[in-house]
Specification:
Length: about 140
């Protein structure tokens, strides 16, 4: 049975795509939940974004998640796989105030070569007034 990662503000289904893709949304791709069997870790679920054309695929959490501790650094990260072309992958935390308005972002970008998997990580402290966050990749 999957376990919630301690300190992760995402809920279990958004964190692990354990039940369905409802924790994520995209305007540029169809999102599919796919089982991945790993040699040393058993089975896991991954989120696949399928699209036609050369437009970038952007996914984001379907909801905002409350920040557990203010004034402390948070990490936003994602694993990105590009099967057939070199690309740049970006992860972004969108910091939101009490009204749900975006008051800042935190991003990191890495180059991903065709056929490679890359973990992209950004670490930073939310701005004053931030009470929740959304993530996009």
């Amino acid at each position: 049975m999957p376990e919630h990662i301690p300190g992760n503000i995402l809920d279990l289904n958004t964190q692990d795509i354990e039940f369905d893709t409802s924790g994520w949304e995209s305007d540029s791709a169809v999102l599919v939940r796919q089982e991945l069997v790993m040699v040393n870790r058993g089975e896991d679920w991954i989120l696949v974004g399928a699209a036609t054309g050369a437009a970038p695929i952007v996914i984001r959490t379907a909801q905002a998640f409350p920040l557990e501790v203010t004034g402390t650094p948070y990490a936003v990260y994602g694993h990105v796989y590009s099967p057939d072309r070199d690309t740049d992958a970006t992860v972004t935390a969108h910091w939101l105030d009490e009204s749900g308005e975006e008051i800042g972002t935190l991003s990191a970008t890495k180059s991903v070569s065709a056929g490679d998997i890359m973990r992209v990580v950004a670490v930073g402290t939310p701005p004053a007034g931030a009470v929740s966050a959304r993530m996009s990749m």
